[in-house]
Amino acid sequence: MTFPSGFFVIDKPSGVTSFSMVSLVRRLTGVRRVGHAGTLDPLATGVLPVAVGQAARLIEYMDAESKTYVARVRFGAATDTYDAEGALTANGDAALATPATIAALLPAFTGDIDQIPPAYSAIKLAGKPLYKYARAGEPVNLTARRVHIERITVLGFEVPDTELEVVCGKGTYIRSLAHDLGQRLGCGSHLAALRRTASGGFGIEDTVTPEALSRLAEEGRLEDALLAPDRAVERLRAAIVGGEHAGDVAAGRNVSLALVPGVPEAGASEICRVYDVAGCFLGVLEARAGGAWHPAKVLARA
C-alpha cells in the first residue's frame, strides 16, 4: 500500500540537522520523495514542515509565507558564526544593552532592509557554500541581500540576554540580526537560542516530536500525524470545478472560473487552490490573460 501524500510538521530538536528529519520520515514511510520547507540550523528548534510524496510539489508556495521565531540574543560577546556554536571574536560591555537602547534600535531593523548573511551559511558562491570558504579560512566578499522583517517584539530582558519575537520573510537570517544588533550597540552579540514557532502556514500546535512520530510508526498509526497537502496553500482563494472541468485540470488544460458576487477579480499571475465537487484537492491554478486559469500544479488522485 502506497503511503499517502501530506505533511508531517516536526518539532525539530536542537543538535540535529533539518535533513536528518527528512531521513527519519523517509525511513518511517518508505517514501523517497520527501522534502522540508525552510531549513533550520542544527542549534535551532521548532516548526519544520516535512512534505511526503506529491505534497513536496507545494513547498515553493510556502516560501511566500512569513515565519515567526523566538530568539534569545546574548549581548557582550560576538562569535564568528553569529551563534553560540562559534568561536568568540570579541567581548564587550553587555551593560550597553538595556530595554531602552534595544527598543530604540528595532525600527531600523524592520521593513525591507539590507542584511549581510553569516559567513557560516549554506548560501552558495561560485557553486560552493559560504561555510566551506569560512572553514578553510578563505576570505569572501559578503554582499548584502534585501530581506523583509515584518515585526520585532521584545518578550523579555535579563542581562546579558534579550528574548525577541521576530516575524520575517524568506531569506532572513536571525543570526545576522542578532549579530547586527550588538554591532550597532558597540558591545557585540550573538544568537544564544532560536525556536521557530510558525512556518509555511503551520504552527507549534501542528507539530509532532521525532520520538512521537517513531512511536506512531511502531503502532501502525503514522498517518494519524499526517496533515493534508492543501494545508500548505490554505491562505489562497479556493475554486470548485465540476466533473468535466476537473478532468480538464487533471489533463493540464486551462479552465474558466465564475467568481462569487462581491469577490474581486484575480490579479496577474494570482494562484488559487482547486477542488472537485466531492472536496478532493486537485492542485493549484494560476491566473492567465483573458480570464483563463492554468493548472500550475496537479496532484494525482489517490
Question: Could you please describe the fold and organization of this structure?
Answer:
The chain is built from seven helices and 18 strands. By secondary structure, it is α+β, with helices and mostly antiparallel strands. The strands form four sheets. Strands 1, 2, 3, 4, 7, 10, 11, 12 and 13 form a nine-stranded mixed beta sheet that branches. Strand 16 (271-276) and strand 17 form a beta hairpin. Helix 1 packs parallel to helix 6.
Largest sheet: 9 strands, mixed
Instruction: Tell me, briefly, the overall form.
Output: globular
Enumerate the spans where pLDDT stays under 50 for 5 or more consecutive residues.
none
Per DSSP E runs of 2 or more residues, the count of β-strands stands at 18
Strand content: 25-35%
User: Whole-Å distance between the termini?
Assistant: 11 Å
H-E order: EHEEHEEEHEEEHEEHEEHEHEEEE
Rg over CA atoms: 22 Å
Helix content bin: 10-25%
Number of helices: 7
Mean pLDDT: 93
Helix-strand category? alpha+beta
